[in-house]
Design brief:
2 domains, 346 residues, five-stranded mixed beta barrel, Rossmann fold, alpha+beta, OB fold (Dihydrolipoamide Acetyltransferase, E2P), 20 strands, six-stranded mixed β-sheet
Amino acid sequence: MLSIHNLTIRYGEQNAVRDLSLVVDSGEIMSLVGPTGCGKSSVLRAVAGIRKPDGGQIVIEGLCTSNQRFVPPEKRRTGLVFQDFALFPHLNVERNIGFRVKDTKAVETWISTLGLEAFRKAMPETLSGGQKQRVALARSLAHRPRLLLLDEPLSNLDAAMKMELRPLIREAIKQAGVTALWVTHDQEEAITIGDRIAVMQHGRIEQVGTPQQCYEAPTSRFAAEFFGEGRFLAGERQGECARTPLGECQIVSHTPQKKEGAIEVLLRPHDIALVLTPTGNAMVESHRYEGETRRYGIRLENGDYLEARLSHELQFEVGKRVEATISAGHPLAAFSPASSQQPPES
């Protein structure tokens, strides 16, 4: 439905987006995630038609646009939802949603679906942040867009409101049957919202995959470090396994040309098990209670520091020795040692 081919965007001498390609299928929600300044919002603005690309093509349901053949925003049938809500301050909720909408049934549908019946006559200044964002979403969906573009739509809300709105907004987008590109820097948000995730760095796509693929099988060190918690543990590769200070484990190596030699294994906190023993291979350095879980910082005998997340029922005191082992039931991502990685292109 949305195809981006070799997109390039420049600001002066700086390349914000470099030769980027991405395909979003019809009816799919694609989360575009990356750190601040990686170019993800520039991609969204180019798709919306707010920013003319310096190179490449964008195709929205067969409509092709480029620098030489630019299609203005109003011709693209895209809906936009911003982080600052962008509501009309002089219009109440009902009139905001219905602004330039011919089908009044669509207005009523989204007022009902997004739980805004009690606020239809309310003015924007009387609404909470979560209510404003629901109004902004309803307004976009009432126009029946081919493509919905959301630029950090929950970044101005508190944590509790984000948790409440994520499933509500995802369900509304799916009910509308609209294709969506959701830009965020929040990994948890990307996981819970997206059917697939595109991870960006330095204006390029590092990885595209399902949330599970991006979390459990990152294809680059950057994706591994950015997407989810984790630390690298040095080991020795032996075919499809690695020998580490915590024992052997199966790996998915991203240095396929090497069947043996030094390697670093990505360990998420839940991949590590701890058992209290005076002859253990690690010492507990920190402990934090997290409700259903406890997080432990441990120092191995070789000096490496790792973190483990365990059930709240397992409690170890700081200073105690523990035996740390790898408990993952799936192959772990492994990469060449960091010192051998090539720096990004300028």
